[in-house]
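Lecture 7, part B: from sequences to assemblies.

Below are the input chains for today's worked example.
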Amino acid sequence: MYRSHTCGELRESHSNTLVTLTGWVQKTRDKGFVVWVDLRDRYGITQLVFDEERTSKDLLEKARNLGREFVIQAKGTVIERASKNPNLPTGDIEVLVNELIILNTSKTPPFTIENETDGGEDLRMKYRYLDIRRNQVKDNLIFRSKVAIEVRKYLSEEGFIEVETPYLIKSTPEGARDFVVPSRMNEGQFYALPQSPQTFKQLLMVGGMDKYFQIVKCFRDEDLRADRQPEFTQIDCEMAFVEQEDILNTFEGLTRHLLAEINGVEIDAFPRMTFDEAMRRFGNDKPDIRFGMELGELNEVAQHRHFNVFNSAEFVGGIAVPNGAEYTRKEIDKLIDWVKRPQIGAKGMVYVKCNEDGTFKSSVDKFYDQDDLANWAKVVGAKVGDLICILSGRTDETRAQLSALRMEMAERLGLRKSNEFAPLWVTDFPLLELDEETGRYHAMHHPFTSPKPGQLELLETDPGAVKANAYDLVLNGNEIGGGSIRIHDKDVQATMFRHLGFTPEEAHAQFGFLMDAFQYGAPPHGGIAFGLDRLVAILGGQETIRDFIAFPKNNSGRDVMIDAPSPIDQEQLDELGLKLRT
Amino acid sequence: MYRSHTCGELRESHSNTLVTLTGWVQKTRDKGFVVWVDLRDRYGITQLVFDEERTSKDLLEKARNLGREFVIQAKGTVIERASKNPNLPTGDIEVLVNELIILNTSKTPPFTIENETDGGEDLRMKYRYLDIRRNQVKDNLIFRSKVAIEVRKYLSEEGFIEVETPYLIKSTPEGARDFVVPSRMNEGQFYALPQSPQTFKQLLMVGGMDKYFQIVKCFRDEDLRADRQPEFTQIDCEMAFVEQEDILNTFEGLTRHLLAEINGVEIDAFPRMTFDEAMRRFGNDKPDIRFGMELGELNEVAQHRHFNVFNSAEFVGGIAVPNGAEYTRKEIDKLIDWVKRPQIGAKGMVYVKCNEDGTFKSSVDKFYDQDDLANWAKVVGAKVGDLICILSGRTDETRAQLSALRMEMAERLGLRKSNEFAPLWVTDFPLLELDEETGRYHAMHHPFTSPKPGQLELLETDPGAVKANAYDLVLNGNEIGGGSIRIHDKDVQATMFRHLGFTPEEAHAQFGFLMDAFQYGAPPHGGIAFGLDRLVAILGGQETIRDFIAFPKNNSGRDVMIDAPSPIDQEQLDELGLKLRT
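Predicted structure of the full complex, as structure tokens:
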């Protein structure tokens, strides 16, 4: 062992102990007669001291010439510091060094290895191994491993078995795009990397494994949006002989355990809300309920005048922004510009200021009187001093716009507090979703999700109205998990495939093994999958996942550190029986 | 919840309790006036009883018609059995059923779901979800998850952090063949699936993460030998600021923990042996030391007569097979045939019987006298009643043949006891291995392995003689782990690449990121990786890994259950910019 202690553990009680430390040179301060070196490792920083009185000339010189990020081994005696640093756990002591070995030198790093770094995103990614030395990234990775430990601990104690499912599986065109892996031994054929272990966990239920989980990498070849990764990690879970209620309780238990163990937050029963209610109250199927600003539907109280914009709209709705009445005309104009950005897509915005004197001032004063505006304020729950923002148009679009506005205002008002945790179950999702481009229905969750009891017949007459035994777990406005009770009856599954536009042949070619399995005694079952990257980020009080992933890819799916993907040899292509198009 | 109890937990103390059980019908026994149903779930089997006296006629009829593997829910009362079954944990009770719900029917399964099944390997793989219902497979999977839990527990308590490294990485021609993944967003470029997270764990050390582990899938596109899988699981570990001794101690600790927790076996310090010694004594770098039969080198005592076969051989060696003197001529001939099989490759075999009366009888009596044979017996440690088997030829080949013979005889003699555990460290492996076909040296472990201190210069003059800071952990004749102290100096690494025949350009193209990283303060580091599949199998007292993997592939790399790999759509190929050769 190169060290006797880490750089995070020495205290005053170690005084006069001979120690050997190793680590990286964070910085040196040279006062001429004395040189201090901050030595850093995973565990902290310890100050080394060299001085004219007690240190040999050669050693002092050697210390003086240490560069940033040199790797050193220092032997010496722990002594009490003259001026202590209360901000550092080791701040009461320093180590008076009598032997210094340079284990490795370092070029000057391309950015400072400090909490506040001068390195931009691209540089940090290219030199990720240096970025990981910074507390933020290092602590996030340690935090992530701690969350994973607690997940495994909780689920194991609940009788779940972690089973590894295969990574080289079969491509299925349904859903997102698969990454594929050409097979050399079976020329012209391909494996696919799993988008999730969905079918395998269902087969494990058929196999009697009754409580399964796995922390597992999944892959989706999608055009990457910000903060999406082509490979991501799921906590994948499935149970047999259960109903929806059992799953909600079990995984509410897991989440409660994590919040308690990781964040020290105790939360009672999680609130629940149907999908329809979430859309109505928040315009969003993953509402952040840490704050109010709920959507009010104004159709009844705003479509009785001669304001055609509202009268012709399917939906008129608003939110009350706390203390927004003091916004200047210019600020409100900027807000109107914001909702008109293509990402939001509103055509305009009507506003009402709820003045301190109880009167209202709106941008549509020529159409509506004070009583009208007072009614609106009542519907959206606006108080004196608030600003009511009103959008109108198609119901789903307008709700989505109001939701975006609500989140934006909450962000600006500091209502999205990272140390506050508000979990929420959203249930009763629609089974199917209409793809407006193709006019075809596809599964909102996936094709194995079961409809609510008694709604199977509705598939024939009003497919869009069928609700599913599907649920999401939402935390602070982010979907952290989603799942469903599955179909376990082969005839129901065949019906589902038919409604999703599969011919029996296509269904058989892609999912024949699952439909076969359902012939041999499939138990009732259901499950859930959590996105670990996002869960960890949110528990860590952040919303971007990238710094909770050791080696993330950029928005083009590239690992800029190792420079992947990259061309491969002709020989490799030949062995795989492949040619490039170009 | 569909059940109140599992099928494994009811005892006499539950008598008169109303319970609800769910599970699969293992079998029904119909005695006319009474019907017994064995109900099975993951936790065990519970007997259900229906009889004319206490059960309604309809219900009795329903029970009578249950098919094998039907999924049912049964409600009833726990009662004491008249004739108890001491072989079953629930054998003291049965459940008198008053309500029976068929949750799903089943076709007759293609093989019996019993400990002793009539299903052949192929059928079991095709219907793996049924195979998993069998105790053997199910228990193996549960056993595997238990081992993984203990691994994580031990390493976490030792301060290791589990860090997930990426699966979509960069192809490197060094070593085995990579599976590659075409990139759609970067046409003509490919990711590779990791053969191991080797470079990433080294980068984590450069990043200061100092104690890393990960239980992780790895991928090798090799022509599959029996009991090899294209995807396999490693316990991958790395430490910084350590020497070989620290790594051996840490992972000896892990292995000792597993043997104690999983197998209840306490083992003191693991023996250690250099590679050279292992080859000399056992002809094998992963010797099974649960039994003797060590190799004796007979050159000195067998090359002084006119027996040209021995005189012209580089190496003459033998082993003493306990109690082999009683073998008949026919049995010995079969043994000679066995060593002459192409898989073993010996040209012939000389034998010496150590008779009960102290005399010797050999197949080369016309060349050697009794004193010669007595000397041989002494060298190989043969006792009265033993059979000495002697092979000759090139040293390495002959040792390998003797090793194979030794293992075969141990197997036949029942010396490889599955409940006995004999771990062994093999150290000081050669750094390089000569590829006889190409005449080129390649890294025996991998190109990042450091030579023993002071041996770097030897690379120039006698590369084959250079020993590495490399070690394997052997358990019962299987390599369960292997690792090394890595190179952390960029110049040494460049020298290694040169000796492995890389031009500087090639080295840079493939490992530039690692060599770059080494410029920024790489600490001394080293690690080890365990093959989890094999480790679990051996701890489980078995040698084949397949039934410790939930969904294994066959020897052609196929998953016969899901029928993968398989052709993909032209559209998918087009999106990837690929064409098939045919």
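Note for the exam: The CA atoms of residues 33 and 52 of chain B lie 5 Å apart. Keep this in mind when comparing with the next example.
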